[in-house]
Amino acid sequence: MIKKACLGPGPLALIAILPVFLLTNRIRADPRTQTVLFTCGTQPEDNRTAFVPNFVAAMENISSQIRVSGFGTASVGSGPNTNYGLAQCYGDLSLVDCVLCYAAARTLLPQCYPGNGGRVYLDGCYMRSENYTFFEEWAGPGDRAVCGNVTRMGPGFRDSARQAVEQAGSAAPGNNGFARARVGVPGVRNVSVYVLANCWRTIGERACRACLANATELVLGCLPSTEGRALKTGCFLRIIAIVVASVSAVAVLITGAYIGVYIWKNKVIEKKRKGDAHKLVKTLHDSSLNFKYSTLEKATGSFDPANKLGQGGFGTVYKGVLPDGREIAVKRLFFNNRHRAADFYNEVNIISSVEHKNLVRLLGCSCSGPESLLVYEFLPNQSLDHPIKGKTLNWEKRFEIIIGTAEGLVYLHENTNVRIIHRDIKASNILLDSRLRAKIADFGLARSFQGDKSHISTAIAGTLGYMAPEYLAHGQLTEKADVYSFGVLLFEIVTGRMNNRSKNSEYSDSLISIVWIHFQENLVEKLLDPNLMQHNYNNINIKREMLRVVHVGLLCTQEIPSLRPSMSKVLLMLVDKEELPAPTNPPFMDEKTMELNDSSGNTLLPIDCSNGDSVANMSHSSIYYPRFCRKEYFHFPFSSEETIFPSRKLKMIKTPNLGPGPIALITILSVFLLSGGPRADPRTNTVLFECGSQVAANTTVLVPNFGATMEIIAAQIRTSAFGTAIVGSRPNSIHGLVQCYGDLSLVDCVLCFIVARTLLPKCYPVNGGRVYLDGCFMRSENYTFFDEWAGPGDRAVCGNLTQLGPSFRESARRAVVRAVSSAPGNNGFARARVGVPGIRNVSVYVMANCWRTVGERACRACLGKASGLVLGCLPSTEGRALNTGCFLRYSDMDFLNPMPARGSSKGRIIAIVMACVGAAAVLLIAAYVGIYIRRNKVIEKKRKVKTLHDSSLNFKYSTLERATGSFDPANKLGQGGFGTVYKGILPDGREIAVKRLFFNNKHRAADFYNEVNIVNSIQHKNLVRLLGCSCSGPESLLVYELLPNESLDRFILGTAEGLVYLHENTKMRIIHRDIKASNILLDSKFRPKIADFGLARSFQDDKSHISTVIVGTFFGILLLEIVTGRMNNQSETSDYSDSLISIVWRNFHEKGVEKLLDPNLMQQNCNINTKNEILRVVHVALLCMQEIPSLRPSMSKVLLMLVGKEDLPNPTNPPFMNEVTMELTESRAKMVFPLEHSYGDSIANLSHSNFYPR
Fold first, then answer.
1. Residue 274 known to bind ligand
2. Residue ranges of the Protein kinase domain (predicted)?
3. Any bridge partners for residue 1039, and if so which?
4. What's the pLDDT score for residue 122?
5. How would residue 100 be classed by pLDDT, with cut points 50, 70 and 90?
6. CATH says 795-897 is which class?
């Protein structure tokens, strides 16, 4: 008797899915086209005429070798014009994937032109080109390691990594230069270290061994990172702690189950998920920031289209009214928040971390409902792009908008703790409040990075026409990209025109080009908005101001990024505080605006998809570049986190803490359902490739223009399977068109495009050509051909097999007629299948496709002509009509890729069966998920609580007590306005400063919350940063960043910038009331940070002042203390002394200020320029301390005066200049100050110079 095993739902589901999966074809391995490193040489080519054909010939020579052996070398040309090339795929890549990897690498190297050398390391292959023989080189100055950013601690992992690297490194030299190794990690189940080592075949065994030995040192330097690559001149070495091999479908199933367990146990991914939630909770530090989904749904009338305000980079914005009557703007993201969590967190984190009067204000968000929502302040006048074209904005208002936008960008670039680049500055992203003040909005594309980095490399994002050329070409992002966009915005504001195509032409000169030409000819006045000139034609000052703005715009849009001014310089230039140099030419000054549109008119371009992105068509002209996002783990078809295929719209489901059973099940099911079975065929067979007959007039610009055109089209192809572009001006312009046939998926479309793109460069130096592949069409000319549908080159290409009999002919005619008649009314695409009577299992398959640039009438005419051509191929079993505006093919073989919406009855049956199997599996998964959700109910509830007590802002009292050694006096850093400050070290090693208030939090709650609220609501590089607080213990504690250098000695400008921000650039005007040397702290780079906001007060900017109790010390006094090295209090020898103000004032009048300057400064800085700068600071200080408040300059004026951008008037006398400083000493540590009765009858006991009457 056989005892039946009790199988749970997990194994049963596995058994149910396994047969279905095994019946599918083997999953295709990954060509691993992820770019690891792409570098160009620095030496320009001497003979550019010979360079291009030599390079193309070398690549073509290598291409033929790659298809056979996965490796190739070539040398074409002679002498210094010779082009030497090498390409090699890594040993585990199939020839099919090798060809795809090579095609991807081949599109990169031409970008080095006119440099004559470069190298590309992809994760699947390597390519190099030079003008000298380098084949035997194995080491060079460019050798480096690229390390991952995820770490695994513990000696077991390190030892396993070293062992695996040594195994592969020692085996490869004797194994044709290739080896791989796998070593398990002791003590960690199902985790191994995988290594791939590969030497180029041109170096010998000895050189290979030396190269890999050197590479071993490089890659082991990456430990404890879980991934590292050594990129050597002669070899490649990679280490990773994930599955590495190319495997069959059965192996994928087993591997999927193990990876499911691994994902569940993987602490790194768990930390990332918690980190994302943590970032979100950070913005919900106050319960009012967290909105219920139902509340926002009601507020917007269930997202009623009538309440739609517009669309931003990632979603639609609706007007809403909260129950308390507040008007809000609700941004509804295009994607579910689980699926687009990275972008959602990016926008929330960036906006919640900045605060400025010219930035739109985030009121809160909702992430607990079915979709992610952001809540902003409502701005009634919407965006700038509408009024800019009309008469509503006069010049005064427009100039205020310009200045406000510039101030907002200055804050983002220079005055936050990290540098923030918006990446999408344009008129539609500048909102206007009720007073028509500018507010920068839509931070969905924004990126932040540390101030010590020169740039960040990122996938391209922005709006075409506003994007800096260096960023568009290389993806290197700096603040100068925003400066360029701002320059374009200036032109639009002044001219009233938008920087896109005109109404009467599909392609027009860009606004930048037009302005440059007029500027060169001194005709800028002709471009000024007539609506502005009607009222200001005779106002010479306003006209000059407009021309100045145009001049600044040209400086902002210069081609060379380093020549563009910073935004702070731009601001000075706009207000006429900085001289304007002559601008150099902008990019593409002779070219047409490059505009890319899909069928719905949406402009498309790339965006970062490092966290996995699917396809999105962005509104208006926002762009989105969906790379085929997956983390590259050798030959495994999906990442350990998620797989997102651009041809599908997927919802990512965030699961609770599940055990290995359901995770493995979900993983296996994901492999099957997401892969969609075997991948469709990209049909890269070349049908026809021909070049034009006209040689390019200027071959120097032909190559970069062609490269730019292909890059632009590539961005569109990835999202819409179609693209057009124009770069340059005739006769050197390049007009390009690419279209994939309608049954090709986006993935296969890109592969088809990559292959076609390698063919057209062979036409050089001819500037035209066309490529017909079986999956796509590509054409390039030096004129606009987009409307053409017929031409002398139209022809038929017939097969060489025949099918006799009238039934086949008749079936072919019927199928062709059916497809040709359907396509024009179906977006230019149709297909048909007609069975052949009397012949079992034989049908005729037809596909008809018109290019999207021809209209329906032209499409019908084109296909009518094509049908006549293709039917001329009968009785051949296959025929293709290759027309100027369309493509038509018939065959007795089913060459069509499956389209679920239009499947045959057989396809429908398969779909039904698959749906049933999938539904059964989903039910089993749902049962498992339900059980585990129930078991983890308590944990889920805790995770969903989004209050201050759950967030990173809340510290336990006991944690801070331990961190400071129970407030050990040895850790005391000093005393602030309300308490003593101690140094502390948190359990994670972070150093902090803990402020222990003098009063119990219940006794001084108002002051405690005042400091918390003010410091938490502002962000600036020159303000100390609040990390959190503790209000649940026996006393109130504030936690700040630790600034190791304690107090100020010589840093004036940073302090002034911080005060400008507080006074003028926050939504509430904030008065610090206690600016003095001990409240200016210095970080590790000696940058000043204003601290101690216990006395600060805030008020609305429409009030001239507020009445409050007397407190404070002054910036003017601080300047004098810094310059003289003296403190403004009693001397050590006398209880009564002249104040520092009085002493400086007297010496200023007697021209004896130099006597007061700190001798330590004068010893080091005896040159005349430094001395003049110090005297200027003294002069500014006296202006700050004039007795009449209205005569004192604002802090923004003070800042200009300090940097020499503002003239210094003569100061009037300061207060008490003839009096002895009133200082009454009660003891050495305390003083009392008599106060007017109107402020209270009591007196205040104060430490040092702080005073606070109660």
1. no
2. 303-589, 967-1254
3. 994, 1028
4. 92
5. confident
6. alpha beta
